[in-house]
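Look over both lines:
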Amino acid sequence: MASLSEHPAAPTHDAAEQRLAAGVDRAAPAREAGAAASSPGGPAATEASPGSRRASSSPRGRVVALTGAASFLGRNLIGILEEDPRIARVVAIDIKPPDTGGSKLRLHTIDLTAPASEERIAEVLAAEQVDTLVHLCFLSSPTPATAWAHELESVGTMHLLHGVRQAGLRKLILWSQTILYGAHPTNPNFLTEKHPLRADPEERFFADKMAAEREFNAFGARTKGTTVTILRTAPILGPTVQNYLTRFLARRLVMTMLGFDPLWQFIHEVDAIAAFKLAIDSDFAGTFNIVGDGVLPLSTIVRLAGRTPLPVLHSAAGPLVSALWAAHAAIAPPSFLQYLRYVCVADGEKAARVMGFRPVYTTREALLDYTNAQRLRDVRLLQETPA
């Protein structure tokens, strides 16, 4: 079978929850990301651009909270924030402690799916005197446990914002993804932040994240004095991250659609982490595409990854992947097949102009960095695998 259909059974409700709590991905080198985020004049310099303002800090230092603290982005951000002398405390909100915490870390076990979580969130944010909250509690890969995913991402975001409203934070940052623009034959070569989100609304993986964006935008429109930032990352790729994309490219045979060769783009894991650190350091209201420079045709991606393409007729691929997904034997539902046919790449000009964000790695370099590590794993020269 092709790559989309060659994956162990998808997690059940409990297993999926454990995967998110433990972090679907393994921590990348936090020091490298920190350097990318803070080097003077570097690709992701933290100086505020015109129209932005430096995040204020009290004499005792700032306090930053993160939901999904045990996820890939959460663990790496905690590692960087721990090393920042301007940060007094890092407040982790998750159902499992991250493995990168130090003396600054304060862990609060809160399940965002619980009805009483909003009161608990308000208490924690007030008690810890949090000024900035980064919402990362989202699945990086689709799961058949759609009811639970909806409770976590959509309902959980509502619970979080109700708690934030009571606490009165100064800044909110949300993780979103450019895949939400959707893959369509009418898409332009590059999608800007002004384009609507047109991913399949029937697919829970997309619908819940789009609902979370709407909730954050509505909150920002109603709440004065709170900066709301949404970072839409391109698919994250690198040597230590794991998600549906890395599993797709890890198979010997990679499914493609016969007659189609769409352009893809990635963001290196280090650059994704650096973008969040940049948003934490300075205030940038609005939505920003966080993408690597350049694009690659899918055929080139498969070749550079050292894999063999398996072209399949779309009419046959849909029923096949649908059946395998229902049997928990596919890495993604059939709605993802659209991305094997049509372009869905985003324009990062706004992030460069307003935030001063410039990725260190191009799309090609992010792919090669992942591929080099994966090849070592393939021949068992690299024993550690992304968790």
Q: What stands out?
A: Residues 317 and 337 are 8 Å apart (CA to CA). Residues 146-167 form the longest helix (22 residues).
